[in-house]
Amino acid sequence: FVDRSLSVPLTEKPSDEANSLFGTIDEATREKLEDVYSHRPYFIYWASLVHILVMIISLSVYGFAPVGVGLKNETSQVTSVAGGQQTVFREINQNFWFGPSFDDLIHLGAKFGPCMRRDEKIFREIESERRLERDNTGCCVNLQSQFCYQSVKRDCTDGFFDWIKWEGNSVVNLTGPNQPVPTITSALAANATPGPGCIADQHGQRCYRRSGSVCGVDPRTCLQPQSEYPHEWADDITKWPVCTREDTLRRDSIANTACEVSGRPCCIGNQGVCTIATKDHCDYVKGFYHGDKELCSEVDCLEDVCGLTSFLVRDNPDHFYRLWTSLCLHVGLIHLALTLIMHMTLGRHIEKLIGWFRTAMIYILSGIGGNLVSAVFVPYQAEVGPGGAIFGLLATLFVEIIQQWNLLLTPDQDIIKLGVLVVFLFALGFLPYLDNFANISGFIFGLLLAAIFVPFFEPNRKDGVRRKGLTIIISIAVLLTLYTLLIVFFWGFQDWECNWCKYINCIPLKENFCQDLSQSIRKPRLSYNSL
User: What helix, strand, coil percent values describe the chain, rounded to 5?
Assistant: First the structure.
């Protein structure tokens, strides 16, 4: 990319004319210039090998997404929770880069805001669904076949089903499975008030419950842990403990526990949406099926979506390391090929010039900085690839040319060639799955990092050292300020929306061209012709 021909020959003593035009080049500077190609590009080779291995593993585990642009619509017949068949509609993300799907990239470690922080927009939706489950769901029992599923009342209106919902006028004994349950009349005679409050009489502690019932589990049937005073199960089914041992005889005598549960929690989409579905249904829509759970409130769907490692605290995503892991991923084989081309040309040249450590620092820190900016502006887009890192290397080459301007024969031509390359790569960033926010910001971080790490050959060493020292101090201060502001903004300012940001990353050249990169909170579109 750069003509390394020097304006002052290194094989002979500089002439008086050269000294007068460019200043005297002392022996130390001459040795550095003669040594510019002594470094071996070990880091670039290592990074390229990692990219290739990660792509092989990704495709081996997840395979290829359907090849195409935008979303592909499909329908199929699946088993419903109410029995019989239902038609389910699903949308499939296509990938013209020949690689994994949008959801698989998230699972592999893509930059995706909801996996890196507790996203308040998403968790407001999740909490709303949990309140609905707590207050408005009951057990829908089939009276003929004795199977059941958790639902709201409108989904349990068939004549063959009975919707069991505790409404505050049902008495549940919380003293344990072996104690008799008083009638409503005897409880009212004891001055009990209908509702979630408890009363005490000769039988022990009694409660009127409003939250529940739940298919497959009941405080009256559980032996471990027992629901007994003063450790009664809460009048909130989303806070019930896991029952590890049951009274099987009593279980068979209660309608909502005697039935076979036909629907379990299924996590669908990439924003933590949960629904009660059959395994057949869940598998078809590429969801995560929890066959050992009864309620959606028992599962952490975002943890399923994000994959890799479990969250340290439930409902608190903490995959901040995705700023790094996403640099090792690619959206497809074409994307990987472009990266390797840049590595073997641009990357090797720079590492030969400044060494592996300086190259690694610029590459990694530019990539992380670019991903952080992208996470702030487009947090719900899963982005992968070392775009920000490569733009950081391009910025390094710009800095090198400017610093060595008087030592190069054609610096103006070199700048033009680099400018054309930057424009071309930026134009590629308008295609789906590539990230222009990371590219632009990676270039800016690269300029600052290059000012710190790229050696500065100055004939007048005293002036050069002073100028270089001041440049390093200013660049470090600006870098730390940028990183700090971005981190604070990423965690502290989540309610702002950027409606135009999506056009920086993807231009809708045709219908649905960028639809799978939506910038809004959305639920998966599922349609049924039954229920």
Answer: 45, 15, 40
